[in-house]
Design brief:
The complex is a heterodimer. Chain A is of the alpha+beta class. Helix content of chain A is 23%, strand content 33%. Chain A has a 6-stranded mixed sheet with strand order 6-7-8-3-9-10, with helices on both faces. In chain A, strands 13-12-11-14-20 form a 5-stranded antiparallel sheet. Chain B has helices at 6-15, 23-62, 73-77, 81-114, 117-128, 135-146, 151-158, 172-197, 201-208, 213-224, 226-241, 245-250, 258-267, 272-297, 299-302, and strands at residues 65-66, 69-70. The chains are: A alpha+beta, B mainly alpha. The A-B interface holds A 61-63, 82-90, 92-94, 96-100, 109-110, 113-114, 143, 157, 161 and B 199, 201-202, 204-213, 215-216, 219-220, 223-224, 226, 306.
C-alpha cells in the first residue's frame, strides 16, 4: 500500500504523526490524529474546507504548534523544532513568492540562507528552473509571471535545497482547469524523479485520486479513511467517503438474514456486508449503472422514472427518480451506438452488476 | 485577459465598411456620458483653482515685483548667508526629525501590526490621540515639560543622572523633540498600513526556506515594508520643511526655519515680495524632492499603489 522510493532515505524521510490534537477555543481542528507516511510516499490529505487538512500540514511545517501529540521525521522528534530548522520544502496556496526578488532571487534564497557559494547557487538555480521548464525566466520579476509560471517558481524554490520532505498546500487551486490537470501530471512526474516524501493538501477529490500513492480523507479533524485512490473510490468505508469521493447516490437497503434487501428483493452483492447490522446504503455511481432494455440476467434491477437529461459533452447524465423519493443518476458515454436515452417522464429500468455493488453504513464504523 | 470597452467596439466597427444602424446612437451615448462625468468634476476643479492655484500664481507674481517693476532682487537676496544658513538649518532639522521618526516609528508600527486586532486598534488610538489635540496646546505642553525646572529636568535630577538642569528648550534639541512628537503619527500610519497588509505567508515562506526570525525580518519583512517607509519619509520630511509653529515656540527664536523667515519678512518688514520668493523656493524644493524620489522608486509605490 505504501510506495517506497528505491533510492532510500538519503533523499526522503518517513513521517510519523502520533496522536496530534489541536484546538482553538472550543473548536477541535485536529482530534487525536495519527498517520504513518512512508519514505518517498506521495500522500494526499483530502477533505472539505475546515476539515483540518491545512492545520495538519501547518503542524508538519512547524507553523502551528499542536496542543498534544508528536511529529517525527525519520528518527527525529521535530515536535518542538522551529520552522526554519525543519528543512522541509513547502509550496503555499498563494505561492508566497517574494515580490522584491527576481525569479532567480526567489529560487536562490534558501541556498543563500544555507551559505552555498555564489557560483554554485547560480548553477543549481538554473538546473531547477530548467526542471520546472522555466529556464529562461530567471531574471523576470514575480509580477511579470502568469499564474502557472508562479506555481512553477514556487515549486522550484521549495525543491532547490533538496529537502527530503515536500509539503504542498492546495498549490494548483488558483490555476484554470486545463493547466491544473497538466500540472498534476508534472508534479507527479517530478515526485517520481526526485523521490522526496510528499504531503499534498487538496479539497479536489479528483486531484487526490490522480496524484497520490495514498489518500487520507479527513473531516472534522479526524481521518475517515486512508488508502490507495482505488481503495477509497471502490471501497468507501462510510457514507461520508462514498458521497465525498466521486459522484454517488445512496439507496437505503434493509438487512435481513445476513443479506441486503431493496424493496423486499434480495440484492446480489460483490461481498457479504462488512457491517451486517444497522442501517446500510447501497452506493450508486453513475458510471456503474446500466440502462436496461430487455430482461438481462445477473443484475440488480431498479425501476424508476426518467426525470432529466444533462448533456456534458463527453458523456450524458440521466437522472432517474426511484420510489420513496430516491434519486440516482446514470452516465452514458457520448457514443452514437447503444440505446437512446429515454425521454423524461418515461419508466426506466436500471441494472447494477453484483461486482459493482458497495454497501456503506449510515455512520462511520467505530 | 482582454477587456473590450464600448469605445473599442465602436472603433473596430469604424474600420469595417459595414455600419450598424445603431452605431451613431452608441456613440452619442458614449459622448453624453463623458460630458456628464466631466461636468461632475467642474466644481472640484473650480475649487482647487480658487483656493490653491490662484494664490500660488499670485505668490509667484509677487515674488518678481518691486513696487511696480519686474525684478529678481528678492531671489538675489536669498543668496545672503542669513538665508543659506536658514536653509541649512531647515534641512538638517528635517533630516534629523525624519531619521528619529524612522527609528521610533518603525518598531512601533511593527508592534502594532503584529498584535491582535483589538489591541492594535487601541494602540493606534494612542498614536492618533495627539493628532486630535491642538498643535499649539501640544507645543506649550512641551514647553512646560522641557523648561529649566520642568518635569523632565527634575526627574533626571531626582534620579541622579544629571547635576545641573539641561537646556532642553529654546534650542535645536527642544525643537527636535517637539517636531518628532508632532511628526511620529505621520510615519507610523503609512508604515502600519503597509505592514498590516503583508500576507503572513511571506514570513512563513521565509522561515520554511530556512531563515531564522532575524534573517526573515531583515531579508523579507523590511524590504516588503519599503512602500510604507518611503511614504512615511516623504510625508514627514516635506511637512518638516515647511513647519512653523513648533520650531517657533520650542526654538525660542534661536532655531531659524525657512517658514520663520517668511513670517519675519511679512510681519516685521511687510515685504511681501521677499516672503513670496521664499515661499516659491520652498515649494520648488518640495516638488523637486517629490519628483526625485518618484523617479528613484516609482511614485505609485510611495502612494501605496503596489
Amino acid at each position: 500500500m505504501t510506495a517506497v522510493n528505491g533510492k532510500g532515505s538519503a533523499i526522503s524521510l518517513p513521517i510519523s504523526i502520533r496522536n496530534v490534537t489541536k484546538t482553538y477555543g472550543t473548536f477541535t481542528a485536529l482530534d487525536n490524529v495519527s498517520l504513518e507516511i512512508a519514505s518517498g510516499e506521495f500522500i494526499t490529505l483530502l477533505g472539505p474546507s475546515g476539515s483540518g487538512k491545512t492545520t495538519l500540514l501547518m503542524v508538519l511545517a512547524g507553523f502551528i504548534r499542536p496542543a498534544s501529540g508528536e511529529v517525527r521525521f525519520g528518527d527525529r522528534d521535530v515536535s518542538l523544532l522551529p520552522p526554519h530548522k525543519r528543512d522541509v520544502g513547502m509550496v503555499f496556496q498563494n505561492y508566497a513568492l517574494f515580490p522584491h526578488m527576481t525569479v532567480a532571487g526567489n529560487v536562490g534564497y534558501p541556498l543563500r540562507l544555507r551559505g552555498v557559494a555564489k557560483s554554485e547557487i547560480a548553477d543549481r538555480v538554473q538546473k531547477v528552473l530548467a526542471l520546472v521548464q522555466l529556464g529562461e525566466l530567471g531574471t523576470r520579476n514575480i509580477d511579470q509571471l502568469s499564474g502557472g509560471q508562479r506555481q512553477r517558481v514556487a515549486l522550484a524554490r521549495a525543491i532547490v535545497f533538496e529537502p527530503r520532505i515536500l509539503l504542498m498546500d492546495e498549490p494548483l487551486s488558483a490555476l484554470d482547469k486545463k493547466l491544473r490537470e497538466q500540472m498534476q501530471i508534472e508534479v507527479r512526474h517530478l515526485h517520481q524523479r526526485l523521490g522526496m516524501t510528499t504531503v499534498y493538501v487538496t479539497h479536489d477529490q479528483r486531484e487526490a485520486l490522480t496524484m497520490s500513492d495514498r489518500v487520507a480523507v479527513i473531516d472534522k479533524g479526524r481521518f475517515h479513511q486512508i488508502g490507495s485512490p482505488r481503495d477509497v473510490y471502490e471501497r468507501p468505508e462510510s457514507r461520508f467517503i462514498a458521497e465525498f469521493i466521486g459522484e454517488s447516490h445512496l439507496v437505503a437497503v434493509s438487512m435481513r438474514g445476513g443479506t441486503a434487501h431493496y424493496r423486499d428483493r434480495p440484492l446480489q452483492l460483490a461481498e457479504p456486508p462488512r457491517h451486517p447490522s444497522g442501517q446500510q446504503f447501497l452506493v450508486m455511481r453513475p458510471e456503474k449503472l446500466k440502462l436496461l432494455t430487455g430482461g438481462e440476467d445477473g443484475l440488480n434491477v431498479f425501476e424508476g422514472t426518467a426525470r432529466e437529461i444533462v448533456y456534458q459533452g463527453e458523456s450524458t447524465l440521466l437522472y432517474v427518480d426511484l420510489p420513496d423519493d430516491v434519486e440516482v443518476a446514470i452516465r452514458q458515454p457520448a457514443t452514437n451506438v447503444g440505446p437512446a436515452l429515454p425521454a423524461p417522464g418515461t419508466p426506466v429500468r436500471l441494472g447494477l452488476p453484483a461486482g459493482d455493488t458497495m454497501l456503506v453504513p449510515a455512520e462511520r464504523a467505530p | 485577459m482582454t477587456t473590450t470597452s464600448l469605445a473599442d467596439e465602436v472603433g473596430r466597427r469604424d474600420h469595417a465598411a459595414w455600419k450598424a444602424p445603431n452605431e451613431a446612437a452608441y456613440r452619442r451615448r458614449e459622448r453624453s456620458e463623458t460630458t456628464v462625468l466631466a461636468a461632475l468634476a467642474v466644481p472640484g476643479l473650480l475649487l482647487i483653482g480658487a483656493i490653491a492655484l490662484t494664490p500660488i500664481a499670485w505668490l509667484f507674481w509677487l515674488s518678481f515685483r518691486s513696487g511696480s517693476d519686474f525684478t529678481f532682487e528678492h531671489y538675489e537676496r536669498l543668496l545672503h548667508p542669513t538665508y543659506t544658513l536658514t536653509l541649512q538649518t531647515t534641512f538638517e532639522l528635517s533630516f534629523l526629525v525624519t531619521a528619529i521618526c524612522i527609528a521610533l516609528g518603525y518598531p512601533l508600527a511593527y508592534l502594532i501590526s503584529q498584535v491582535r486586532p483589538r489591541l492594535a486598534g487601541f494602540l493606534l488610538l494612542l498614536v492618533l490621540f495627539p493628532v486630535w489635540t491642538s498643535l499649539l496646546v501640544r507645543c506649550y505642553a512641551w514647553l512646560v515639560l522641557l523648561q529649566r525646572r520642568g518635569v523632565v529636568n527634575s526627574w533626571l535630577q531626582d534620579m541622579g543622572l544629571i547635576d545641573a538642569p539641561l537646556r532642553l528648550m529654546h534650542n535645536f534639541t527642544g525643537t527636535t523633540i517637539g517636531m518628532v512628537h508632532i511628526m511620529l503619527p505621520f510615519m507610523v500610519l503609512p508604515l502600519y498600513a503597509t505592514m498590516r497588509s503583508l500576507n503572513r505567508d511571506y514570513m512563513r515562506a521565509a522561515a520554511n526556506l530556512g531563515a531564522s526570525p532575524v534573517k526573515a525580518f531583515w531579508g523579507v519583512f523590511v524590504p516588503l515594508s519599503f512602500p510604507g517607509l518611503f511614504a512615511g519619509i516623504i510625508i514627514v520630511f516635506v511637512l518638516c520643511l515647511g513647519f512653523y509653529v513648533t520650531p517657533a515656540l520650542l526654538g525660542g527664536g534661536r532655531v531659524m526655519m525657512w517658514s520663520m523667515q517668511i513670517e519675519r519678512n511679512v510681519t516685521y518688514h511687510s515685504d511681501w515680495g521677499a516672503a513670496s520668493a521664499l515661499g516659491v523656493v520652498l515649494l520648488a524644493m518640495t516638488l523637486a524632492i517629490l519628483w526625485g524620489v518618484g523617479r528613484l522608486i516609482g511614485f505609485d509605490r510611495i502612494v501605496g499603489g503596489r
